[in-house]
Design a protein that fits this description.
The protein has 142 residues and is mainly alpha-helical. It folds into two domains: 72 residues; 57 residues, no CATH class. Helix content is 53%, strand content 10%. The chain is built from four helices and four strands. The strands form two sheets. The protein has a two-stranded antiparallel ribbon. Strands 3-4 form a two-stranded antiparallel ribbon. The longest helix has 39 residues. The radius of gyration is 32 Å and the shape is rod-shaped. The structure holds zinc ion. Zinc ion (ZN) binds next to loops. The site of zinc ion has 8 residues, from loops.
Length: 142
């Protein structure tokens, strides 16, 4: 929505929302008669609906914004994982690659080359404290 449109929109909303106040005066001035109160009451309800819709949209907008923010936080995977060697129990903190899976890992202590176990896609999923980034982000692993 561009500036001009939103200005006109808010102007219309303002006129509609306040019509319950100025319309009776207008009708009195032109001699509205006995139907005056009925119309006024109806419009009062109408403006209430408009306000409710407006507040609803505002709340929805805030909710959407919050949701988006939370999603972007969740999208950031933890890249630090501590690998524990199954042979000698040596622990080493490693930074995981985000674009590829590490299939082999050589223990710097006993020089054993680790490979993923079972259905795991990489050594971090098998021996690390934290699963690899694609698994964290619920994506298909290489
Ligand atoms: Zn080892």
């Amino acid at each position: 929505m561009n500036y001009r449109k939103s200005l006109i929109g808010s102007l219309i909303a303002f006129v509609v929302a306040t019509s319950c106040c100025w319309l009776p005066v207008l009708l009195i001035s032109i001699g509205g008669g006995s139907t005056l109160f009925g119309i006024s009451n109806g419009l009062e309800k109408f403006s209430g609906i408009f306000m409710t819709i407006g507040i609803g949209f505002l709340g929805f907008g805030i909710y959407q914004y919050k949701n988006k923010k939370e999603m972007s936080i969740n999208k950031e995977a933890i890249l630090q994982s501590t690998i524990t060697c199954p042979k000698c129990g040596h622990k080493k903190e490693e930074t995981m690659p985000t674009n590829a899976c590490q299939y082999f890992y050589e223990c710097e202590n006993c020089k054993k080359v680790l490979k993923p176990t079972g259905n795991d896609c990489c050594v971090y999923c098998s021996y690390g404290t934290i699963a690899c980034p694609p698994i964290q982000l619920d994506q298909n692993c290489c």
